[in-house]
């Protein structure tokens, strides 16, 4: 007598823990945050339903739009050198004649495993205008006579924050680009060399077009992560005129410092819309015709 086992039932059992965890840890907080955004709640009293009042307030909140601009400026200042540096080093370390390439890959990737809080504190100490090592080096070599108060200038503050982000994530993008380069068939390179193509032509006509899917992934992840900057800018401060205050910092201050959890929830959904908007723009801008 043959008995058939309903394998689909056991499949549901195996995937059930993931969906249960997602419902409890992922979807439930998202829905509860949306509920809080429709109320007035300080975390102590009972929530009072106010409808779309928080979203109306968000639309007219100049500080929120200022944080959007500051976040975009910092992201652009970090992503451009980050991509160029990662791609350039990936092209170099992918060459056969480079010795110790695995060592350099590990060294360049190392900043990515350091926590952003640690990097923020490190750079804040390095650029401290009284005791920072950067000022001491510049004064010793004679480039400046007096210590420079880096964080007293909005653009220098943004450059430093962007430098932290670039230094932390270029190693990750480097590994991604190297993986993409190694996925290109060697026969393509050999055929190009037989046709007399020089290295710049190979890079421009072969490597870059074939790396478009990898670059699309890099850009999208950079947009999503770059618009959610929090740890490093928080350690470095808001900057003069709140020049380095990001959207997530504004959310943190609104909800957890001012105890306005309802409006903070609305800010969270506003950030979600901003991230999705720029992610969609990045996807459309990098989409190519088949």
Q: What would you note in describing this structure?
A:
The protein is mostly helical and 290 residues long. It has a single domain, classed as Orthogonal Bundle (MetI-like fold). Helix content is 71%, strand content 1%. Strands 1-2 form a two-stranded antiparallel ribbon. Helix 5 packs across helix 7. The mean pLDDT is 89.
Q: Hey, roughly how much beta strand do the residues contain? A: under 5%
Number of helices: 13
Can you list the strand order of the major beta sheet?
A: 1-2
CATH superfamily: MetI-like
For the largest beta-sheet, the strand count, sense and barrel status come to: 2 strands, antiparallel
| Architecture per CATH nomenclature, i.e. the level-2 architecture | Orthogonal Bundle
Q: What helical percentage do the residues reach?
A: over 70%
Task: Catalogue the unreliable spans.
Answer: none
Number of strands: 2
Quote the average pLDDT: 89
In total, how many domains does the architecture comprise?
1
What name is given to the CATH topology? MetI-like fold
Summing up helix and strand content along with how strands pair, one would put the structural category as mainly alpha
For the record, the CATH class is Mainly Alpha
N-to-C span? 54 Å
| Helix/strand order | HEEHHHHHHHHHHHH
Q: From the alpha-carbon coordinates, what is the Rg to the nearest angstrom?
A: 24 Å
Task: Name the shape in a single word.
Answer: globular
